[in-house]
């Protein structure tokens, strides 16, 4: 039983330790950039000892890290002072133990029009604003916006706001400014909203949580109760070892009192019947 307790302790420690994660942020927060723009990518980390580094995959390289021929490391950030279309690709944070953050896709355009859209997934129910802009002219030119290749709206000021986004708004977006050109396409991801509501004692049960909610609840419980659970396992293990040792010790000691009384009884009976 003691070995089982230690195994449970080990597994629980592994689960608790894997809750630390890194979040990749981009400034400016746009999935598309003009040739020659400046961009800074940062690994916002919960555990600085994990040694998070920024890596990328492009058309010509795989899993190269910041400073290895591209970018300038600055603590947990990586700065690219002059982006090039060759910098287009997938970026992510990676720890020494090969744990990874969610990846993002950056597109560097050599053209004159880009679509500024969220680089990170947006929450279901939020409002999302898309901006169609050129490199040399003001950003309030009329623009047409497309989703999955179909025209969805024409805006006189180059801005389009999608109110209360849902999963149906997820897709591939691009824009076009007459006389200037068309932007590259960017994928917009919509994720489910995580909400934990506590129902009153006399109220009906809340709806069954979705899978993302279950993951969030599990991580929250692990972060809160892991220290108490580990302490309890240690105390139980120590108590069982101590109790087992005392029982073995008591069984190993001879019962002298019982043996002496038994011998005296035999002697008395023998004496009484001696003629």
TrEMBL record:
Cellular compartments per GO CC = external side of plasma membrane
Mind telling me which PANTHER family this protein's record contains? FC RECEPTOR-LIKE PROTEIN 4, IMMUNOGLOBULIN FC RECEPTOR
What Pfam families does the entry give?
Answer: Ig_2
> Signal peptide position in this chain?
1-22
Keywords on record:
Disulfide bond, Membrane, Signal, Transmembrane, Transmembrane helix
The organism encoding this protein is Oreochromis aureus
- Protein name as annotated: Ig-like domain-containing protein
The record's GO molecular-function terms, alphabetically, read:
transmembrane signaling receptor activity
What PROSITE patterns has UniProt attached to this entry? IG_LIKE
Please give the biological process terms from Gene Ontology that the record holds: cell surface receptor signaling pathway; immune response
């Amino acid at each position: 039983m003691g070995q089982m307790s230690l195994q449970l302790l080990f597994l629980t420690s592994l689960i608790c330790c894997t809750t630390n994660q890194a979040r990749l942020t981009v400034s400016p927060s746009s999935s598309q950039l003009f040739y020659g723009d400046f961009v800074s990518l940062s690994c916002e980390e919960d555990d600085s000892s994990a040694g998070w580094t920024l890596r990328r995959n492009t058309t010509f390289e795989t899993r190269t890290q910041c400073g290895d021929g591209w970018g300038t490391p600055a603590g947990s950030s990586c700065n690219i002072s002059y982006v090039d279309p060759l910098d287009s690709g997938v970026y992510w944070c990676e720890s020494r133990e090969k744990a990874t953050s969610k990846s993002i896709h950056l597109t560097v355009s050599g053209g004159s029009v880009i679509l500024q859209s969220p680089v990170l997934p947006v929450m279901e129910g939020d409002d999302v604003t898309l901006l169609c802009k050129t490199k040399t002219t003001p950003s309030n030119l009329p623009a047409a916006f497309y989703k999955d290749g179909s025209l969805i709206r024409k805006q006189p000021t180059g801005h389009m706001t999608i109110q209360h986004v849902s999963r149906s708004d997820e897709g591939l977006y691009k824009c076009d400014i007459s006389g200037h050109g068309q932007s590259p396409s960017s994928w917009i991801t919509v994720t489910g909203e995580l909400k934990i509501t506590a129902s009153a004692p006399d109220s009906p049960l809340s709806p069954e949580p979705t899978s993302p909610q279950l993951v969030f609840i599990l991580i929250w419980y692990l972060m809160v109760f892991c220290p108490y659970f580990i302490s309890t396992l240690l105390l139980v293990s120590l108590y069982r070892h101590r109790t087992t040792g005392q029982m073995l010790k008591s069984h190993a000691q001879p019962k002298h009192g019982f043996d002496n009384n038994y011998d005296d009884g035999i002697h008395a009976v023998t004496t009484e019947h001696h003629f």
